[in-house]
């Protein structure tokens, strides 16, 4: 019961951070908060948080941002599946190596989003699509430390 509350609370905080509005010139610097939190829980507790949770959280992010319904759900499921397959290996990596892997996963998220936007005619090619991946990877060590301390504080197994 306690662990479900902590999971929900961390996901709600991530959704609140996703909902923050950025000025138009800083929109490329928005990190993928919800994806960051899901990836942490998948690496830490893959039997409790998995593809289903990622799909639901992605659907909530779609509703929150007002975009195409199913876009974030699709990308979160794909990325969570890749992370769940490799979670044992990821646990052994150092934080900076994990951050590089997070960069790759969020880059895949951004590329799929760019592809969908480009297909619908809403996006032009730019390398700035990788900026959220860079920012998210830079935030990974801090997010990992905070969520791990929460997990240990509430003895979530």
UniProtKB/TrEMBL annotation:
Species in which this protein is naturally found: Marinomonas piezotolerans
Protein name (Swiss-Prot/TrEMBL): Rod shape-determining protein MreD
Principal location class: membrane
GO CC terms: plasma membrane
Cross-referenced Pfam families: MreD (PF04093)
Matches recorded under InterPro entries: Cell_shape_determining_MreD, MreD_proteobac
Lipid bilayer topology: Multi-pass membrane protein
Function: Involved in formation of the rod shape of the cell. May also contribute to regulation of formation of penicillin-binding proteins.
Domain of life assignment: Bacteria
Family: Belongs to the MreD family.
TM segment ranges: 6-28, 35-57, 69-87, 99-116, 128-147
A single BP term in Gene Ontology: regulation of cell shape
Subcellular compartments: Cell inner membrane; Cell membrane
Keywords: Cell inner membrane, Cell membrane, Cell shape, Membrane, Transmembrane, Transmembrane helix
